Amino acid sequence: MEKIISYENLTKLVDGIIQSGHIAIGQDEKGINWKRLNDAKELKINYASVPSNLSYKEFLFTKTEPVFYFRNNKDNFNLIEPKPEINENSKIVFLGAKPCDSRSIEIMSKVFNWDYKDKFFNQRAVQSIVIGTACNYQDEFCFCTSVGLSPVSEKGSDIFLVPLDDKNFAVKIISEKGKEFIAPYLNLLADENISLDKIIVGIKAPEKKFDTAKVKEWVTNNFEHKIFDDAGATCLSCGQCAFACPVCHCFDIVDEECDYTCGRRMKNWDACQFGLFTLHGSGHNPRETHGKRYRQRVAHKFKYYHDKFDEILCTGCGRCSRGCPAGIDIACVVTNINTVANQA
Ligand code: SF4
Ligand code: SF4
Questions:
Q1: For 300-335, how does the pLDDT look when each residue is reduced to its tens digit (9 = 90+)?
Q2: For the segment 53-98, what is each residue's pLDDT rounded down to a tens digit?
């Protein structure tokens, strides 16, 4: 016996979330972006469509936010904490995240709790509930199975939905957080005599394209290689790949003064594909070419992050490749590395 929920009852769940003062985050009408839902009718569970252009990371790691404000006059200097924009008792509920999105919070938590604990990210992560869904979509850019995930991976989800048809989902409660969250809404779930394991086995997964261990070993031993120059040759340094990525997390810190007596310190998204990213005050830039910057993108994801945190910094969503205006496909680059590694 499995628990199921109808689409109609899912919208009632969203109503309950909104009425309780929590924040429901879902995809917009066209499935392009994630947004705060103001009405349960806006709910879209796009389990059979292409992943949204952007991930939902901006609700945890915001595009721009104040770290503190400051005021000074000749007698005093004051630092002022920003007011949290979300009530600390409110949950942030992500509805309908595919496995390549659901996993992102755990992966990013590693870097935001390393040498410095980022209270902004952590507060939102603690408040988050991820209602993930199995994914019934794949195209040439998807490669979740190459990075340890799959269309039915429950990793990162607190509650996991498995689509049964257009109107019903099987419901799996994955975490204690999910169990606690769903408790007031159990009346929306029904019992159904189905074999969930058989349904899950029937969901097709993308073919595995490369072996991350082999790629890491090759990148470690081939810091200078033409592959990176070739990959970066057409890069426009637009940064789309980093901004769309569910786990890219580079940021810049900028002090903005309103005059000599007040100002604020801002934390803003940044991207290692930008030419200015590593430009030193001296004028020297250790990554002055697109090839060196693309090498950084690949090495950070498949070597450095793994060295440091035992995690691949990629969920195989394919967003960076689908959206790249220069047609650079990270899965093709990394598959090419795997091929070259096999020939060595
Ligand atoms: S999206 Fe493509 S063109 Fe833009 S920075 Fe990334 S790799 Fe370069
Ligand atoms: S690197 Fe590309 S494929 Fe991997 S998680 Fe980021 S956007 Fe998705």
A1: 999 999 999 999 999 999 999 999 999 999 999 999
A2: 999 999 999 999 999 999 988 888 899 999 888 888 999 999 999 9
**Hey, what's the torsion of the CAs at 220, 226, 228, 231, to 10 degrees?**
-150
* pTM exceeds 0.90 for this model: yes
Would you mind telling me the total number of residues written for the chain in this entry? Answer: 344
Tokens of 263: 């100002």
Cα-to-centroid distance, 145 and ligand 2 (Å): 13
Q: Which helix (H) or strand (E) holds 67?
A: strand 64-72
Q: In angstroms, what CA-CA distances link 89 with 86, 140, 309, 311?
A: 8, 41, 30, 31
Q: Please give the distance of CA 339 from its chain centroid, rounded to a whole number.
A: 28
Does any ligand 2 atom lie closer than 6 A to the CB of residue 315? yes
CA distance 339 to 344: 9
Mutate to test the pocket of ligand 2, among 55, 320, 324, 333 (most ligand atoms within 8 A of CB): 320
| Domain residue ranges of the chain, discontinuous segments joined by + | 2-201, 212-343
Q: What are phi and psi of 143, to 5 degrees?
A: -150, 40
Expressed in percent and rounded to 5, the helix, strand and coil fractions of the chain are 35, 20, 45
How crowded is residue 191: how many other Cβ atoms within 10 Å of its Cβ?
9
Looking at the chain, list the stretches that DSSP marks H as alpha helix, in order from N- to C-terminal side: 7-19, 99-102, 104-111, 119-127, 176-182, 196-201, 212-221, 226-232, 240-244, 290-299, 305-309, 319-322, 330-343
